[in-house]
Amino acid sequence: MSTSHWLSLRGRRSLRFVGLVVALCLLGALAALGVRSMFTSVGSAKHMRYEPVDVPPQEVSPRHQKEREEYDRRERAVTEKSR
């Protein structure tokens, strides 16, 4: 095998390596932009105001009503114990 043959193999390997490094850099930049946009959206959500929704009493589900009664009962039991 001649010297030029080994140089061409070395050149192909180095080109493949450089291409891999460039692809990894682009992938990292894309990931960084994605993380940055995610943090930006989370940061802006902190300052958003969510208005409470008034739910008419007839639309409260029976399960929710039972949970509310159980919560009230436990709260009353705790306040009576502390007296």
Name a few traits of the molecule.
83 residues, mainly alpha, 78% helix
Structural overview:
This protein is mainly α. It has helices spanning 3-46, 62-82. The chain starts with a helix and ends with a helix.
List the helices and strands and how they pair.
Layout: H1 3-46, H2 62-82
Specify the biggest β-sheet: none
- Give the SSE order as H and E letters: HH
Mean pLDDT: 79
Give the percentage of residues in beta strands.
Answer: under 5%
Structural class: mainly alpha
Overall shape: it is rod-shaped
Count of alpha and pi helical runs? 2
What would you report as the Rg, rounded to the nearest angstrom?
32 Å
Assembly type of the chains comes to: single chain
Brief sketch in words of this structure:
This protein has 83 residues and is an all-alpha fold. It is built from 2 helices and no strands.
